[in-house]
Amino acid sequence: MLRVQGKAVHQCDSGWVPVFVDQEQSISLMSVGFLLEKPDEAVVWRGPKKNALIKQFVSDVAWGQLDYLVVDTPPGTSDEHMAVVDALRPYSPLGALVVTTPQAVSVGDVRRELTFCKKVGLRVIGVVENMSGFVCPHCAECTNIFSRGGGEELARHAGVPFLGSVPLDPELTRSLEEGRDFIQGFPESPAFPTLSCIAQKILNEAPVGLS
Q: Which range has highest mean pLDDT (92-96, 141-145, 181-185)?
């Protein structure tokens, strides 16, 4: 998505130097994929080794001055999620942004994630419903392929903010696969206003410089 395949991680006095996405070095990235000899190599590690690497990604990477640090994880309540929370706790994390799809199976998994956040004392910034309907590029009619409203209902029951529903959009998929800037390239997309609104709500809840 970010066109950084094949990039390498280097060492400096402060630790690992992250991979920079752009020449201005406004976005930096760290992934276990950068540490593998082959991109298709499977990472078969037991819990303690994975947890130690997660902590290293937080404390031993030369992130520099950051506006935001985003940690992308699948929904879950595993040791890895606990390791992420524990590693970030000294830095007072702003909270978790929880993403679900509308169908009941996904909502059930994410409901457990919300319970996990509550138990570990991690604030939930909000819930986003992804893949929420498909807007036809020809007639603009919206078809709810995977049902609709599961994310909003989940947020209501959990008492957390619902940030919005993102429709399926072939242009969004293509821009991600090609590493293009969706916001700049497809301002007329039906997903554009929703994504912009969600981003603004998150920024309002987590302004730059909040510690």
A: 92-96
β-pair partners for 29: 19
d(CA 113, CA 127): 11
Count how many Cα atoms sit within 13 Å of the Cα of residue 56 in the half-sphere of its side chain: 15
Statement: residue 178 has pLDDT above 50? yes
CA atoms 159, 77, 144, 201: torsion sign:
positive
Beta bridge partners of 134: 143, 168
CA distances from 164 to 100, 131, 152, 202 (A): 11, 11, 8, 11
- Is residue 210 over pLDDT 80? no
CA distance 80 to 71: 12
pTM: 0.86
CA distance 162 to 154: 9
